[in-house]
Amino acid sequence: MRATKILSIGVCTVLLIGLCAFTVQDVKGWFVAGSKPESYKIGVEKDAYLKQNVGYIASSKNKIDGFGVMMQTFIPEDYLGTTVKLTAFIKTKDVKNWAGMWMRVDGKSRKVLGFDNMQNRPIKGTTQWKKHYIILKVPKESKFISYGAILNGTGKVWFDNVKFTVVRVDDPKARKKGYPRKPQNTSFEEFN
Questions:
Q1: What pTM did the predictor assign?
Q2: How many domains does the structure of the chain reveal?
Q3: How many CB atoms lie within 10 A of CB 51?
Q4: Distance CA 125, CA 123 (A)
Q5: pLDDT digits (tens, 9 = 90+) for 125-177
Q6: Using H for helix, E for strand and C for coil, what is the string for the chain?
Q7: pLDDT-derived band of residue 87, with 50, 70 and 90 as boundaries?
Q8: Which residue from 20, 30, 23, 73 is spatially nearest to 54, judged by alpha carbons?
Q9: What is the mean pLDDT of the chain?
Q10: Is 46 domain-assigned?
């Protein structure tokens, strides 16, 4: 595992979505955010069943009134004007409140154009690997897609084999600088 890095413990960087972000472990393309990011850690570990690296988010405190996310944001140029299906395999341990994955499509000035965090179909307790999905429209005016695993309260969530597939195709034309054009390191096999 790579060394842990903590950006200033009582100081948050205000993130794209108005949440605080802390870098807890160097996981290429991913970071931790949420309402209580300082209460969570992210990382990569080898899964005995899958026999490959998987990402995780885990609570680092015994009691948490809030949530953390393992996330990334990218420019959706390949998905503009389409409907996108996000799929991933998720496994959980000791999730007290709820967990899942989430996806948000943002437009100009961070206007939310689409959002799903699985709160209406939560994962609770301890579960084995199971495939989950989210389907959202990505309008042509979309500027960013953010997504990841979410943990509300305490427990641990493993997240792997993340895929985006187009349900309905259109021709993407938009370009932005500073963000990657596609999701990164979704198999958790790459390191910085």
A1: 0.76
A2: 1
A3: 7
A4: 7
A5: 999 999 999 999 999 999 999 999 999 999 999 999 999 999 844 434 333 44
A6: CCCECCCCCCCCEECCCCCEEEEEEEECCEEEEECCHHHEEEEEEEECCCCEEEEEEEECCCCCCCEEEEEEEECCCCCCCEEEEEEEEEEEEEEEEEEEEEEEEECHHHCEEEEECCCCCCEEEEEEEEEEEEEEEECCCCCEEEEEEEEECCCEEEEEEEEEEEEECCCCCCCCCCCCCCCCCCCCCCCC
A7: very high
A8: 30
A9: 83
A10: yes
With respect to residue 60, please indicate whether it lies within any of the assigned structural domains. yes
CA-to-CA separations, 70 to 25, 147, 150, 172, in angstroms, rounded: 11, 8, 7, 27
Residue 148's domain comprises 13-168
Whole-number CA gyration radius for the chain: 16
d(C-alpha 76, C-alpha 139), whole Å: 10
- Domain with residue 29: its CATH number is 2.60.120.260
Please, what is the Cα angle at 49 between 46 and 52, to 5 degrees?
A: 35
**Quick one: which of 130, 71, 120 has its CA closest to 98?**
120
List 4's β-bridge partners, or say none. 25
118, HSE (Cβ side, Cα atoms, 13 Å)? 25
Residues 107/39, Cβ–Cβ less than 8 Å? no
- Asked, for residue 182, whether it belongs to a domain, the answer is no
What is d(CA 174, CA 17) in angstroms, rounded to the nearest whole number?
21
CB 45 within 8 A of CB 189: no
Residue 22 placed within a domain:
yes
